[in-house]
Amino acid sequence: MTIDEKPEVTSTQILDTSGLVCPLPVYKAALVLRGMESGQVLELICTDPGSLADIPALARQRGDRLVGIDDRGAVQVFLIEKGPGT
Fold first, then answer.
1. For residue 44, which of 8, 73, 68 has the smallest C-alpha distance?
2. 3 in a domain, yes or no?
3. Residue 22: active-site member
4. What is the pLDDT of residue 9?
5. What is the pLDDT of residue 86?
6. Whole-angstrom Cα distance, residue 82 to residue 86?
């Protein structure tokens, strides 16, 4: 793998919060992450532009790892790896 290549991340679970605004995407993501095992990856789909700040903050506060963000303009897709002990 070269420096420009990124490892493929496969989501364990997908949560689509399209149409929901703050704080619902954060709240629903936290609930789903709570039920996941350490190392599993949540693919979170959002349409709330505030999610670009809110979801990384959620991952930091919980001790999870944000492994990807795809900002498609009207839609944001986040990949969050559940951290150990969270």
1. 68
2. no
3. yes
4. 82
5. 75
6. 7
The CATH number given to whatever domain includes residue 26 is 3.30.110.40
Structural Rg of the chain based on CA atoms: 12
- CA separation for the pair 71, 73 (Å, rounded): 6
What is the model's pTM?
0.88
| Sign of the torsion formed by the C-alpha atoms of 11, 13, 51 and 71 | positive
pLDDT at position 1, please?
34
The number of angstroms, rounded, from the C-alpha of 74 to the middle of its chain's C-alpha atoms is: 16
Question: What residue has token string 């693919």?
Answer: 43
Q: What region does 39 belong to: left with phi over 0, alpha with psi -120 to 50, or beta?
A: left
pLDDT at site 7: 56
Find the domain containing 44 and state its range: 13-81
Which one of 13, 16, 20, 22 is the catalytic residue? Answer: 22
Averaged pLDDT, groups of 10, the chain, 86 residues long: 56 97 96 97 97 97 96 95 90
